[in-house]
UniProtKB/TrEMBL annotation:
PANTHER family: ENOYL-COA HYDRATASE, IP11341P-RELATED
InterPro entries: ClpP/crotonase-like_dom_sf, Enoyl-CoA_hyd/isom_CS, Enoyl-CoA_hydra/iso
A molecular function (GO) term: enoyl-CoA hydratase activity
Keywords annotated in UniProt: Lyase
Organism: Natronomonas pharaonis (strain ATCC 35678 / DSM 2160 / CIP 103997 / JCM 8858 / NBRC 14720 / NCIMB 2260 / Gabara) (Halobacterium pharaonis)
Protein known as: Enoyl-CoA hydratase
Matches recorded under Pfam families: ECH_1
UniProt similarity note: Belongs to the enoyl-CoA hydratase/isomerase family.
Lineage: Archaea, Methanobacteriati, Methanobacteriota, Stenosarchaea group, Halobacteria
Top-level EC class as recorded in UniProt: lyase
Entry's EC annotation: 4.2.1.17
Length: 232
């Protein structure tokens, strides 16, 4: 269900279940988490096989879990996977080509950079059939697009095309080749990428963030002092 390929500083992580629009079971979530946490490259590129990015949770899995009283456990696995994407030192780029729905949007929200192709569409349709995205989406969506846009997007259940998603900040770029964005990020210094992601993701109190920022800069300056001399 999850395939990886490591090339030139980028681990390509493919959700490979096209017959189910790359919907994720519990095992699929665990495999995705492992692929991200074990990434040996400075950048990971998350994509879907076939014509979809990801349909989110496999609804038959959700139904089975609910019948067994294990729905919360399934959600915890989804939250843990999204948290792994957000918290890893690896920069994670989502390449959204085709539909992203529900949990697929939530996984993209956990990524550091979201790039859509012109044919991408994004939606949180759970509200139309009595659910909502619970892999951290209610936390991350307002942080990414603001509360007003988050409420409109989620409560309406409507589907956004790539350009409208870009307008509200749900994706940062629209291009025909999202992988090229991951590759361009990987061209940068890997240690700087790691420290910069940590700092930008830090939610500590301001003075603690600034102290960590100073320490990270000192580490990088020491590591690259020779190169800095050459740049003058």
């Amino acid at each position: 269900m999850i395939h990886t390929d490591d090339t030139d500083g980028v681990r390509v992580v493919t959700l490979d279940r096209p017959e189910r629009r790359n919907a994720l079971t519990a095992d699929g979530l665990d495999a995705l988490r492992t692929a991200i946490e074990a990434c040996p490259e400075p950048v990971a590129y998350l994509r879907g096989a076939g014509e979809s990015f990801c349909a989110g949770a496999d609804l038959s899995t959700v139904a089975d879990a609910a019948a067994e009283g294990a729905a919360a456990e399934f959600i915890e696995r989804g939250q843990a996977t999204a948290d792994a994407i957000e918290n890893t030192d690896t920069v994670v780029v989502a390449g959204i080509d085709g539909p992203a729905r529900g949990g697929g949007v939530e996984l993209a929200l956990a990524c550091d950079i979201r790039v859509a192709t012109p044919t991408a569409t994004l939606g949180e349709p759970g509200v139309t059939f009595g659910l909502f995205g619970a892999w951290g989406g209610t936390v991350r969506l307002p942080e990414v697009v603001g509360l007003g846009a988050a409420l409109d997007f989620s409560l309406s259940g409507r589907v956004l095309d790539a350009e409208e998603a870009k307008q509200i900040g749900l994706v940062s770029r629209v291009c025909t080749d999202p992988r090229s964005v991951a590759e361009s990020v990987a061209d940068n210094d890997p240690l700087a990428l790691e420290h910069l992601k940590r700092r930008l993701r830090d939610r500590a109190e301001k003075s603690a963030q600034q102290r960590a920022e100073r320490e990270a800069f000192e580490t990088l300056a020491a590591a690259h002092s020779d190169r800095l001399q050459d740049l003058q």
